[in-house]
């Protein structure tokens, strides 16, 4: 963020979700990128409702990798020991299929669950980029759009937000975490 940019917060009531989505679209038209915007709300709105790009994570890939590791571990446990310590009992195969299915399923799901948990844990600890801030009115049912814009667009931004019914908050009132 350059020194010539100012941090602003616009507040919309939860009944004016459409105006908040329109404000996001208008901010984009004025040159504010998605990386320079953060939307804060007491209600978890999806990205699609507010016209934001979808946030992609790698949690599904991490979970699938854990499932593959669990499957390979289960296969090694089902096949390895019976051939290493071969004991032939009647006409039974060295690796009985019905019991192998249970062990394979359980270890595959265990790998999936552990990897997904670790993936979510790492994802929440990862830093987020973009402007950060909070205003107490967000707890009272407001949607906050925190954005940084070049100083030359301040008048146009203020006019556009007040036209849409947004309340522009002074940057001194925004609480920085």
What does this structure look like?
The chain contains four helices and four strands, in the order E-H-E-H-H-E-H-E. The chain is α+β, with helices and mostly antiparallel strands. The chain folds into two domains: 5-55 and 130-169, Alpha-Beta Plaits; 59-125. The radius of gyration is 26 Å and the shape is rod-shaped. It starts with a strand and ends in an 8-residue tail after the last strand.
**Mean pLDDT value:** 82
Q: What is the alpha-carbon Rg in Å? A: 26 Å
Q: Number of helical runs?
A: 4
**Total individual domains:** 2
Q: List the uncertain runs.
A: none
CATH topology of the largest domain: Alpha-Beta Plaits
Based on DSSP secondary structure assignment, what is the total number of beta strands? Answer: 4
Tertiary shape: rod-shaped
Secondary-structure element series = EHEHHEHE
Beginning-to-end CA distance, first to last residue = 18 Å
Strand order of the largest sheet: 2-3-1-4
Give the name of the CATH architecture of the largest domain: 2-Layer Sandwich
CATH first level of the largest domain: Alpha Beta
In percent, how helical is the residue content?
Answer: 40-55%
Classify the secondary structure makeup into a structural class.
alpha+beta
The fraction of residues in strands falls at 5-15%
For the report, how would you describe the main beta sheet? Answer: 4 strands, antiparallel
Summarize the SSE layout with pairings:
Blueprint lengths: L4 E9 L3 H13 L7 E5 L17 H26 L12 H29 L16 E9 L3 H10 L3 E3 L8
